[in-house]
Design goal:
This protein has about 300 residues and is α/β, with parallel strands linked by helices. The chain has twelve helices and eight strands. It has an eight-stranded mixed β-sheet with strand order 3-4-2-1-5-6-8-7, sandwiched between helices. The longest helix is centred in the first third of the chain and has 20 residues. The protein is globular and about 50 Å long. The termini are far apart.
Length: about 300
């Protein structure tokens, strides 16, 4: 059996991957499609979904995000972070994803939470959500390298584990810079590989990364120092970075354990080969963290 997504354009492969897997992820793992936080040393014992909420809160604390009114969630999934941030800050949040299935489900979840909606289906750039005392949200199918927003639109651009999918890392961060309001903040979290300033990646490491790319529809990843250099080149200010690999690595043990339940196995069989392959390859990420090859990188900066 072959993975037909390998022969598709990258954006289409990513779309199909998340169209096929998002429903199962929500059923088994919940609305948050990202790592969890297990303390600085990674040793805190906690339920996985709580760990995912804790990650959001720890990121906000680390990035000193105390308020926001217009928020962009790049790679919004089914709206986990978007709706959490909308309610926490009573903000207007716009989420973008390549997956129509994800955008539709995120919209449904907003309705279930009684969060005001504003949808744009026209060919013109969507308008920003009106500010109000209550949270509001809209979810759009859009390419993060060509965002359908005017310059200076958002005071917070939030990107939690979507940067690894971007085929042009510099173009992506340039788009984030463009849509930020002056003084606005980028909070960017992404999968990285280890720094290579002292030692290039070995052939074995490169093969390990290639296996991860193939399974999770990634073009490539880079190191956190390389992201910092891009941010400096793009004239971001107040740049800060951190490596939270130790704090999040236990997440993959939890995911592997939950993938072995009868309900998860049955869901995988119904979701198609790409989802099955991703589940069978969860150990790639676990081993990547254990060897220090895979890193969980954070970057915050202002415009």
């Amino acid at each position: 059996m072959t993975n037909t997504s390998l022969h598709l354009p990258l954006n289409q492969s990513i779309q199909q991957f998340y169209d096929a897997s998002s429903t199962l992820w929500e059923q088994i793992w919940g609305e948050h499609m990202h790592h969890g936080y297990y303390g600085v040393d990674g040793k805190e014992k906690k339920e996985r979904r709580q760990a995912q909420i804790d990650l959001i809160e720890e990121l906000l604390h680390w990035g000193n995000i105390q308020q926001a009114t217009q928020i962009l969630d790049v790679g919004c999934g089914i709206g986990g972070s978007s709706l959490y941030l909308a309610e926490k800050f009573q903000a207007a949040v716009t989420g973008i994803t390549l997956s129509p299935v994800q955008a539709s489900r995120a919209t449904e979840r907003a309705q279930e939470l009684a969060i005001s909606l504003c949808s744009s289906h026209s060919s013109t750039p969507p308008a920003l959500l009106p500010l109000s005392p209550a949270p509001a949200a809209q979810f759009l199918v859009a390419d993060a390298l060509h965002m359908p927003f005017v310059d200076d639109s958002f005071d917070l651009v939030w990107s939690l584990e979507s940067g690894e999918h971007m085929p042009d890392k510099a173009k992506f961060l340039q788009e984030c810079y463009r849509v930020l309001k002056p003084g606005g903040t980028l909070l960017f979290v992404t999968w990285c590989h280890r720094p290579i300033d002292r030692q290039p990646l070995t052939n074995e490491e490169q093969q390990h990364l290639q296996d991860i790319y193939r399974v999770y529809c990634l073009p490539y990843v880079i190191s956190l120092p390389e992201y910092e250099a891009i941010a400096q080149f793009l004239n971001f200010k107040n740049i800060h970075t951190a490596d939270w690999s130790t704090a999040v690595a236990p997440f993959w043990d939890s995911v592997i354990d939950s993938a072995l339940t009868p309900g998860a196995i049955w869901g995988l069989l119904r979701s198609g080969w790409t989802t099955i392959q991703a589940a069978l390859s969860l150990g790639l990420m676990k081993r990547g963290y254990e060897t220090g090859l895979v890193r969980f990188g954070l970057l915050t900066a202002t415009k």
